[in-house]
Write a structure and sequence with these properties.
By secondary structure, the protein is mainly β. 0% of the residues lie in helices and 48% in strands. It has no helices and 22 strands. The strands form five sheets. Strands 1-6-11-16-22 form a five-stranded parallel β-sheet, with no helix packed on it. Strands 5-10-15-20-21 form a five-stranded mixed β-sheet, with no helix packed on it. A hairpin with an 8-residue loop joins strand 20 and strand 21.
């Protein structure tokens, strides 16, 4: 869980092997549970991830943070199986959120891939992201649930609110 600092937290070059199981209730991820305005890059997860809300191969919950701090997941891969008894399950992120009140920040997933054999959830399940919420309308449909390849309009790129760029599932 990252929060409350003027310094952006960066997590890079981490690997979780397939002999590991990550368990929790809410905001459970193979690398980080709740990423609040931090950067996660070049990380690989092969662990099984189990939870009951917002479960992701890399992060359970990714979001921007006030004071202009953006949340990013860049060049990460997940091959671990995911199991969620509740909502928001995704191969990379269970729940991606951009807050419209944070005009100078964004929440982006860039150049990531997921090849999980099993992704189980009761509602809002996707190979990349379980639920993407964007008030900036950079994702077609204000709420996007259970997408394997999130469809974005031409404005979406790294550095534009809540976007997904060059991802593969």
């Amino acid at each position: 869980y990252t929060r409350e600092s003027d310094i952006m937290v960066a997590i890079s070059d981490c690997t979780v092997d397939d002999k590991t199981t990550v368990k929790g209730k809410q905001n459970v991820g193979g690398i980080i549970g709740h990423s609040y305005g931090s950067m996660v890059f070049h990380c690989d997860n092969a662990a099984e991830v189990i939870g009951s809300e917002a479960v992701g191969g890399i992060a359970g919950h990714l979001r921007d943070y006030q004071a202009g701090r953006s949340g990013y997941i860049i060049a990460c891969t997940n091959s671990g199986n995911l199991s969620n008894s509740g909502i928001r399950t995704g191969g990379i992120v269970g729940y991606n959120l951009y807050d419209i009140n944070h005009a100078t920040s964004e929440s982006c997933i860039v150049a990531c891939s997921s090849c999980s054999n099993t992704i189980i959830g009761s509602l809002r399940v996707g190979l990349l992201v379980g639920e993407a919420h964007s008030n900036s309308n950079t994702i077609i449909n204000e709420y996007h649930y259970g997408s394997w390849a999130l469809t974005t309009d031409s404005r979406t790129s790294l550095g534009y609110k809540a976007g997904f760029n060059a991802c593969y599932a």
